[in-house]
């Protein structure tokens, strides 16, 4: 229950900060210039990169490590990965996207520690998120969601989804490093750097 309340508090704080900053900016500068980038394409690209890192890291972990937690009051590897997958459903639900049939946010994070199932859940929730975001029009991003704040809109929800993904990626990278697991993308960068260094000799 405490985790759900903390998650709700974090989400409301992020939305309040984002919306408040936009309100101040619009009051001080009535700029009606169209956005400089496509939020739909940008968010999908960013979330896709983070999703690949989640899956690659999950695949790189020994199966026995999924129960590791740095302290008794912290989420385990398995719980963080499932938290990420579950929040995709729950955050998108804030703008009206229907939750998958049978999804129970209260039990989902602790539903499994099986490596293959966790990777499957990450992929399923990413497909769900892609479908939801791809189905949005530009007008949908600007659609007001009064229950989240006086100037909140669906674009704010997607922004929170991206920010939340990055937060938890940093968390599992820290867990991995503590366990002596180097993230696969870092291993690849090290190989490329070593190859370039060898070419110069």
Describe the structure.
This protein has 201 residues and is an all-alpha fold. It has helices spanning 2-28, 39-60, 77-93, 115-134, 138-141, 154-178, 184-200. The protein is globular and about 55 Å long. The mean pLDDT is 88.
**Global Rg:** 19 Å
Q: How would a textbook summarize the main sheet?
A: none
Which descriptor suits the 3D outline?
Answer: globular
Order of helices and strands: HHHHHHH
**First-to-last CA distance:** 59 Å
How many helix segments? 7
Report the mean per-residue pLDDT as an integer. 88
**Helix content bin:** 55-70%
Low-confidence stretches: none
Strand percent estimate: under 5%
Please state the structural category. mainly alpha
* Strands, total number: 0
Keywords:
single chain, 201 residues, mainly alpha, 7 helices, 66% helix, 0% strand, globular
Helices and strands, with pairings:
Blueprint: H1 2-28, H2 39-60, H3 77-93, H4 115-134, H5 138-141, H6 154-178, H7 184-200
Helix pairs in contact: 2-4, 2-6, 3-4, 3-6
Short characterization:
By secondary structure, the chain is an all-alpha fold.
């Amino acid at each position: 229950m405490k985790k759900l309340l903390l998650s709700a508090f974090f989400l409301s704080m992020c939305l309040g900060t984002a919306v408040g900053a936009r309100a101040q900016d619009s009051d001080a500068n009535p700029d009606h210039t169209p956005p400089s980038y496509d939020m739909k394409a940008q968010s999908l690209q960013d979330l896709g990169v983070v999703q690949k890192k989640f899956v690659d890291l999950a695949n790189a972990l020994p199966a026995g490590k999924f129960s590791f937690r740095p302290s008794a009051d912290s989420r385990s590897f398995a719980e963080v990965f499932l938290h990420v997958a579950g929040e995709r459903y729950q955050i998108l639900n804030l703008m009206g996207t229907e939750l998958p049939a049978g999804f129970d946010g209260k039990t989902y994070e602790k539903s499994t520690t099986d490596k293959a199932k966790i990777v499957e859940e990450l992929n399923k929730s990413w497909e769900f998120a892609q479908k939801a975001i791809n189905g949005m029009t530009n007008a949908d991003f600007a659609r007001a969601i009064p229950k989240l704040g006086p100037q909140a809109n669906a674009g704010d929800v997607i922004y929170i989804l991206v920010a939340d993904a990055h937060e938890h990626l940093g968390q599992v990278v820290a867990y991995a490093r503590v366990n002596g697991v180097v993230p696969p993308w870092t291993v690849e960068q090290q190989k490329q750097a070593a190859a370039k260094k060898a070419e110069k000799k």
